[in-house]
Amino acid sequence: MLELRSVTKRFGGLVALADITLRVEAGEIVGLVGPNGSGKSTLFGVISGFLKPEAGRVLLLGKEITGLKPHRVARLGVGRTFQIVQPLPEFTCLDMVALGILYAHGERSLQAARKAAREVLAEVGLADWWAARTAELTMVNLRRLELARAISLRPKLLLLDEVFAGLTPAEVREATELIKRLKARHGFTVLMTEHIPAAIMGTCHRVVVLDQGRIIADGTPVEVARDPRVVEVYLGPGSAEGTHAGG
């Protein structure tokens, strides 16, 4: 599905990504974790076309997408959410999702886009909020709206950037189940970043750990939680036992 080959990204003298090589297979849910500044959001930016790497290649379904503009990457099948949700406050939920549909599928009429948007909003639990202005939404509903915008693009690959941020533990559990249901229904592949270890460990088939722009671990949640390097830089003492006990 997705392949990164020796990807390097610099900001001036800072190496944000250093020779990253990674494969994500079709149907996987892969978690990308690491401390602040480890390169997670930069990697998402490179994949989705918002950042151009200095070296390396990005391939989607075997097709080169390195350096393409974000709208072209989206139309090829990459949807993403953003860590900081910034909807237009005067727009309704319906407007926000319909705009995304028109952006990705320009052949649709506004009427058709709005009809599709209503269906997507219902899928994420916002059926009764379609006419609400985004400024009226709670954090959990803002996260649902961001997810609706991403899946409205009919993605083959869905990038979720800290989609659980700002949610309570109960809301995180609900969001986790929602993502699993949407994946089962639509069949997309998921690459997600998150700062909540329990959410990643309970959702993902595989976890990749970044530190200072380099991959330091790649394996199942249990394997990664037991890796001494991961415990040292990210999870903290006692995490392996807790993850193992929780399954």
Beta-strand level of the residues, as a percent range? 15-25%
Poorly predicted tracts of residues: 240-247
Largest sheet: 6 strands, mixed
Named CATH architecture: 3-Layer(aba) Sandwich
Fraction of residues in helices? 40-55%
Query: How many whole angstroms does the radius of gyration measure?
Result: 18 Å
Give an account of the 3D structure.
Helix 3 (93-104) packs parallel to helix 5 (139-151) and helix 4 (110-123) packs across helix 5 (139-151). It is globular, with a radius of gyration of 18 Å. The strands form two sheets. The protein has a six-stranded mixed β-sheet, with helices on both faces. Helix content is 40%, strand content 24%. It is α/β, with parallel strands linked by helices and 247 residues long. A hairpin with a 2-residue loop joins strand 1 (2-11) and strand 2 (14-24). The chain has helices at residues 40-48, 70-75, 93-104, 110-123, 139-151, 169-186, 197-203, 221-226, 228-235, 239-245; strands spanning 2-11, 14-24, 29-33, 55-60, 63-64, 78-80, 157-161, 189-193, 206-211, 214-219. It has a single domain, classed as P-loop containing nucleotide triphosphate hydrolases (Rossmann fold, 3-Layer(aba) Sandwich). The chain contains ten helices and ten strands.
